[in-house]
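INFO worker-7 received task bundle
INFO bundle size: 2
INFO processing item 0
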Amino acid sequence: MSFSHAPSAFDATPGGGAAAVPSGTGRFTTYDGTRLAYHSQGRGEPLICLPGGAMRASVYLGDLGGLAANRRLVLLDLRGTGDSEVPADGATYRVDHQVADVEALRVHLGLERMDVLAHSAGGNLAQLYAAAHPERLRALVLVTPTAWALGVPVTPELRLEAARLRAGREPYDAAIAAYRTILDGGGGEAEWELAVPLFYGRWNERARAHAAANADQQNEEAAHAYAAPEAFDPPATRTALQEVTADVLVLAGEFDGNPRPEPAARIAALFPHGVRDVQPGAGHFPWMDDAPWFAARVERFLAGARTRV
């Protein structure tokens, strides 16, 4: 795999400096002419946020548990999601092609180096970006990340191990049974609906609304193309990550199966300055489960990374 993903002919807006990221929605043109959107909120130094899904509009990230109180969050809508344009070539949904979109955003914002937060499947995009542009990262936060790009698998056994931590009460017993059917290769929409509580540390009205919104926020066609096997060369990516000088935090949820704390530690160990932490009582969306804990942990890490740099 080559880490030179696309031409660098970006439409960088004049005057778009690091300290002047405006609130609201911004747009820029990436390498293939597709117009992409990002949503900025909060105050402080910019934090580029890459959503998961895969290929879910960034609105589901919200303010990341109040992290916007101390950071200017820049939430990228990946191509074909949210307010970003659908690309002319659907093959560019593949995650390795989207590395150039992240670099285009950096250039557009005028950032020499940047702090990046990526969630779930977006972790693969961040890992490939780190491999391609290690000199552009100041700090990286991987929140409940998958790591297909690094060859760290999330197995059915590990997923069920996490699910069984909440056995013995509803709705979790029904969710575990449904999830077992899904992981065995069966099940359908009804089973997925039953299994959804397993992805949240707290299954309350807020979590229900967050989960229900997914259907209108995810580009399913793009999601299928995102993780095509051709996108990944784990040995090459792991080697390239040895050039990353940025501090890296891999944050797992206590009840999350994607990844469990042990694989999360393996992901962190692949970075020269990687650390793992586990949020107590959290599922796959930890800012939804204990917002103050999540925001404080991420901000503490970013502040420490700034000090080290």
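INFO item 0 finished
INFO processing item 1
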Amino acid sequence: MDTIASLFSFITTPVSWVIVQFHSVYGQIFGPDTGWAWGLSIVSLVILIRICLIPLFVKQIKATRAMQTLQPEMKKIQERYKNDKQRQSEEMMKLYKDAGTNPLSSCLPILAQSPFFFALYHVLNGIATGKTIGVIDDQLLASARQAHIFGAPLAAKFTDSADKVAALGATITDVRVVTAIMIVLMSGSQFYTQRQLMTKNVDTTVKTPFMQQQKMLMYVFPVMFAVFGINFPVGVLVYWLTTNVWTMGQQMYVIRNNPTPGSKAQAAYLERLQKHVTSHGKTRRRSEKAIVKAIVSKGRDRNEFERKFINSLTKAGLVAQPDGVVTKGDGATVVETEDGITTTAPAAPKRQQPKRQSKSQRQSAVTAAGGKPADESEPKTSLSKSDEPQDAKPSAAKPAAGTRSKAQSGQRKGPQRPKSPSKK
């Protein structure tokens, strides 16, 4: 442990200084010798470190997305060179280099936290052994040794003997109960964080060994925390539990607002976005415009959830533009070009049906046209005009061709059936 402490001695002093500064603030509220003052100082240290690591977390997300995008290509390389492991590794490294990513990029936040973790462990170990370290002098050392969190001293461990725990002013039962509960919470939060990532934020359309590796880590990490946790002081357990809770909340936010394409989280996000855009008729936030812009730019490469989102907007009379803005269609027709870009075209004018006229209007039209109706067709008869007998005498004046004469009194209205020609 002395070797590890010497390796991280350059950061031990800054870590102890930050703890002391937070302790001076919380000590005025809860008392300088209380577990709340020292415990909240450690929690505040974690929050400060995680805020500083947010840029690395963003880089981790981008690296993870890039790895997920490369999964189909990785699968092809594995199948092509399944009998040549060396060539397979070379092609994988070439693929990572061309894409500008690295599998180790997803571990950046954990690697960056390691120096702070070991520095805090060394500080708490010095408190447990009664040694001053960093900016913690004899007065602060005595105050920290008196601090208890739910009855367990800040520097006590699960594996400590009863005599060592008694020297810190506690009982072995209190220490083991508190440390066991914290270890369970720490392992449970780690398991839930990894499970949330695997069940909600993974592209379910692609199955690769990378997913199997992540699934294995979902069970391995909690076991590792449980095994190593029994050797951690209570203060370190507070640190690690706080960072796990922070990671869990941070990941929940990312999954909800920036999910992986093709995942269940994306389906839920696009459903919420569709309802939001439909109700307002437009995209209101910059993040929404960025998501819509990315979906439109994919064209025919959109996944099932993205196509459903575009179709839902179309049914609602909205059109997603290439710049991410959603506009109303205004009766326009949605057209998808060969590259999958959705555009609008003016709608074709609807064919108007002629308005039906009344009988009086038709008669007036006939009179205006000189006895020829404008929209009436010639009544159909069983015999044509040429087949009528020459000796047939009409009983009245013959009306103009194509017209319908008024019925005489005592006669049936409508076209009359011509008399049959007499047989000679």
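INFO item 1 finished
INFO post-check item 1: Residues 331-335, 337-341, 344-348, 374-410 have pLDDT under 50 and may be disordered.
INFO post-check item 1: The first strand starts at residue 148 and ends at 149.
INFO worker-7 idle
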